[in-house]
Design brief:
With 277 residues, this protein is an alpha+beta fold. The protein folds into two domains: 89 residues, no CATH class; 123 residues, no CATH class. It is built from ten helices and nine strands. The strands form two sheets. It has a five-stranded antiparallel β-sheet with strand order 6-7-5-9-8. Strands 2-1-3-4 form a four-stranded mixed β-sheet.
Length: 277
């Protein structure tokens, strides 16, 4: 697993500021290991503040604290952040998020980006796929062909919101079976160019040695074709065991949990201005 994945908090729940403060009081309380969850609550937050605390904080907030504590007791490796903290840290969430009670998972290569736990694998893979397409286009690709080797296939690729990042593509096919090979799941033809560049702010690039080798060969030595693999093999701990741990706690994964599939897609193509004849 890449070291950058451990920066920050891997799994988080974002809650109102007062709830986060109360949650920390619960976690800091000195309780005996043999005490039950109910005893922990009774001997921590309510003993600190008494009954008026529950009234002041509100039943919804107290219930949320109990829910998170139950998940922690079941072994969930969660960190509670307040809305203010998430903003101060400049964390990036999907549109309309963060929301209370939802578990978010940290992007594998960007510690500031979070996806809902339910869609983590799809969005992480889609982001990686989009980045390699962006890279190859910037390097001057005039054709990019993606073939399924293992894992997610045409049905999965049809749901990806990925297009070529240039406006001069002659044609783009995503998730369609090709006439020559039924394994073809993406086929893009572009005008191409001989002014290769490496886009700034790439996320996955520094962790992909083969991508770097292709880019260097193209920029420095005029590489004319490429053959590389897009791989997604690590489940980053978001698997059936994680799902089982969260299930029944009252926490929300953000939708239907999409299972991980170890996936390899083969990417081939050519660089340079397209032959328009």
């Amino acid at each position: 697993m890449d070291d950058s994945y451990e920066i920050g908090h891997r799994l988080i729940v974002v809650v109102p500021d007062k709830t986060a403060e109360a949650m920390r009081e619960v976690q800091m309380a000195q309780v005996a290991p043999e005490e039950t969850f109910v005893q922990k609550i009774a001997n921590s937050v309510f003993s600190f503040y008494g009954e008026p605390f529950a009234i002041t904080l509100g039943k919804q907030a107290v219930d949320l604290i109990k829910t998170i504590m139950e998940a922690l007791d079941k072994g969930a490796d969660l960190t509670t952040l307040s809305y203010s903290e998430s903003k101060k840290m400049n964390l990036i969430f999907p549109p309309g998020h963060p929301r209370e009670n939802v578990v978010y998972a940290q992007h594998p290569a960007n510690p500031l980006m979070y996806y809902t736990a339910s869609s983590f694998h799809r969005q992480a893979f889609e982001h990686k796929f989009a980045e390699v397409i962006t890279l190859l286009s910037s390097l001057g690709a005039n054709e990019i062909k993606v073939e399924h080797v293992s894992g997610w296939d045409q049905e999965f690729s049809a749901g990806l919101g990925v297009t070529t990042p240039t406006g001069d593509s002659a044609s783009v096919g995503v998730g369609k079976k090709g006439a020559e090979n039924s394994a073809i799941i993406f086929d893009a033809k572009l005008t191409g160019h001989d002014a290769p560049s490496i886009p700034e702010n790439l996320t996955w690039y520094r962790h992909e040695a083969l991508w770097q080798a292709v880019a260097t060969a193209r920029v420095n030595n005029g590489l004319k074709n490429f053959n590389l693999s897009l791989t997604y093999s690590d489940d980053y701990g978001l698997n059936a065991g994680f799902k089982a741990t969260i299930k029944g706690t009252g926490l929300d994964l953000g939708g239907k949990f999409e299972e991980h599939q170890s996936t390899v897609w083969k990417i081939t193509g050519t660089f340079g201005p397209a032959n328009l004849q």
